[in-house]
């Protein structure tokens, strides 16, 4: 009962996390189906938790950091790790995955048909995995600086680093840790997808619609964090974050503009 109370209180304390999670599950269910969704989200949560548990003890792979425990008794913890923190990795990796597929899939068109192929060999290709890891890590470049300032907004001071670091107090090892979580999670997911686990076919027009929603989710998370950054008066930090997002946004707009006829295609692929 105590765990149930803490889980409910976690949702009340962190509603924005669970809104992002709910939206990501809605999109993922239509794009991947429930089986693939549970695989991807479950694997990512497990890998993130293991890496956080390890890093808060031996500094690998995120580098040395610690959770303050300031919200223990108010929200759910697993060991010394806030439940919502490891959970956040899941929807962030999925959103990054959607953005990467928008770059990868248009290059795999077959000559006699318009549209994007969505078979396992493309969904789990090395370009898709590599770009997802980059975008996943990229998102933390914007998220972590403002999260570290959690005592100045409604997140709270839930974690910290023992030493001052170069990027708004964030050590570069932290970003390497994010890359490790993304790569290991997708590697495990790739193994399952290319094994004997077959799911239902996906309508090709649904693929693009959900990927566009995935892009909206990715930018929604970034916009939320940038909005909080400006709200607490960290203007320079916010401007740096906006500047970083510009090249990615420009490239995405070009891809979406070129592929705007895609929604007319209704055939089905595996």
Could you explain how this protein is built, in words?
- The protein is mainly alpha-helical and 270 residues long.
- It has one domain (2-269).
- 66% of the residues lie in helices and 4% in strands.
- The protein is built from 8 helices and 6 strands.
- It has helices at 2-13, 15-58, 83-104, 120-123, 126-147, 172-193, 204-231, 235-258; strands at 66-67, 77-78, 81-82, 159-160, 202-203, 268-269.
- The strands form 3 sheets. A two-stranded antiparallel ribbon has the order 1-4. Strands 2-3 form a two-stranded antiparallel sheet.
- A hairpin with a 2-residue loop joins strand 2 and strand 3 (81-82).
- Helix 2 crosses helix 7 (204-231), helix 5 packs parallel to helix 7 and helix 5 (126-147) runs antiparallel to helix 8 (235-258).
- It is globular.
Secondary-structure blueprint:
Layout lengths: L1 H12 L1 H44 L7 E2 L9 E2 L2 E2 H22 L15 H4 L2 H22 L11 E2 L11 H22 L8 E2 H28 L3 H24 L9 E2 L1
Antiparallel strand pairs: 1-4, 2-3, 5-6
Helix pairs in contact: 2-3, 2-6, 2-7, 3-5, 3-7, 5-6, 5-7, 5-8, 7-8
Strand content: under 5%
Number of helices: 8
Order of H and E elements: HHEEEHHHEHEHHE
The count of strands amounts to: 6
Label the structural class: mainly alpha
Low-pLDDT runs = 261-270
Biggest pleated-sheet summary: 2 strands, antiparallel
Q: How many domains make up the 3D coordinates?
A: 1
Amino- and carboxy-terminal Cα gap: 43 Å
Shape: globular
Compute the CA-based radius of gyration: 19 Å
- Overall mean pLDDT: 87
Lateral arrangement of strands in the main beta sheet: 1-4
- Helix coverage percent of residues? 55-70%
Write down the oligomeric state: single chain
